[in-house]
Known about the structure:
Blueprint lengths: L2 H27 L7 H22 L2 H18 L1 H5 L1
Helix pairs in contact: 1-2, 2-3
Amino acid sequence: MSKNGFEKIVGFCIFSLVAFGGLISWLEIENYISLPSYLACIIRWISILGLIYWMIQKKSLTTTILISMVIGMEIGYDFPEFAVN
Length: 85
């Protein structure tokens, strides 16, 4: 498989992972599904790990800033006491 084909597959997998994490989070926030809080947290952090991998591959300042903002929002959501300090 060529490098370009591999990059497309990895990009699709990361996009799917992030979309799945966002969908699960949205469904939980809107009370359509009920998940244990730790499971939803794990799903969101796995999605963020996919974004971090994409950020490392992309090597762009804009991408790094946007992913860092997503990480900051997730820390604020999951650990509000830590985020305030």
